Amino acid sequence: LASRFSRKVYAALATFAVAMLFLFWTIPVAFVQGLATLKNLGEALPFLKPVVDNIEAAGPSRVHFVEGTLSSWTLILFRNLTLNSGIFQVLARYGGALTHTQIQARSAGLMMLFQLLMILLASLIASSLFDTLKQIIDQPLQLPVLLASALPAQSEFFLNYLNTTTVLLLLFDLLRFLSLALLLCEKCCCCLGCPEFFSKMLDSQNVFKLPIRTARLLGTTTDRVR
């Protein structure tokens, strides 16, 4: 067992790592979301230019809907990569959680907090800050007023995010595509004599599915209430 001093050091490092994760993870997410526009897609992928032109010809409402959907999918992708990576379980263990129940409880709390900060900071507030950056530099003391006037402009993205999360991701969770894919890999590789590797992957995925889905469900429910 580690000494008391070592446990305190690990707990402090885990807390610092959580703070840095919450703080800096919003930067690449907001940057990628800023690139997920029809104009940038048409420039980066020329073969999509006819599709982009057709969407733009349909009117600004269609453009806002498509761009909001792309931004919501980007946020969902980054969120799932983080939630399913197991990093919160590692941070909870280094933070002082000893039993499996404590690890699940702490990791679920970190996941719910992460989802809240990802939605508010990385999508709503960050997008509004980019839109009003010049005004913030000129009038830094007017930041609350500028955010209050800019945040409602992100309502369409927020609704797209909620609808996509509720309709698609919860359905994928119920179908358990990842578990089925790992089980299929295990059965296909039995003839190679190495099914234990895929069994361990399947077991680790099943261990962490409860806090992940609990955090996702509670996060979606909280967003619906707000």
Structural summary, described in words:
The protein has 226 residues and is an all-alpha fold. The chain has one domain. It contains twelve helices and no strands. Helix 10 packs antiparallel against helix 12 (195-225). The longest helix has 32 residues, at 100-131. One of its GO terms (molecular function) is calcium-activated cation channel activity. The chain crosses the membrane at residues 9-31, 108-129. One of its GO terms (cellular component) is plasma membrane.
Structural category is: mainly alpha
What is the helix tally? 12
Mind summarizing the main beta sheet?
A: none
- Tally of strands: 0
Kindly summarize this structure in a few lines.
With 226 residues, this protein is mostly helical. The protein is 84% helix and 0% strand. The chain crosses the membrane at residues 9-31, 108-129.
Question: Layout of helices and strands, plus pairs?
Answer:
Layout: H1 4-24, H2 26-35, H3 38-44, H4 49-57, H5 60-83, H6 87-94, H7 100-131, H8 133-138, H9 143-150, H10 155-175, H11 177-188, H12 195-225
Helix pairs in contact: 1-6, 2-5, 2-7, 3-4, 5-7, 5-10, 6-7, 7-12, 10-12, 11-12
